[in-house]
Amino acid sequence: MWATGGHKQLCRRLLRSRAFEDMRIRGKYWQVIIDGTQLYSTRGELDGKSLYRIHQKGTEDECQESYYYVLEAKLVLLQKIIVSFQTESVENEDRKEMA
Description:
Largest sheet: 4 strands, antiparallel
């Protein structure tokens, strides 16, 4: 896991302060978005749990791209204020190529 507890504490404080109360949807709901992000990629191996793709299979230019990917839950407060409160790394436990 990439996120620290500090993100959750910040989010909790912002909500409890009621500073953003009027940002609720229909006066009741908070908008939470889920975002998938590629953090880093390289040709070759990263580690045993990184995701990977093989490009140009069956040719002499065939190469492997390995990358780290995370899913994040974010609280939308204003159009320009978005707070990440949960980040999870996506791991390739089966070591299968990603499509």
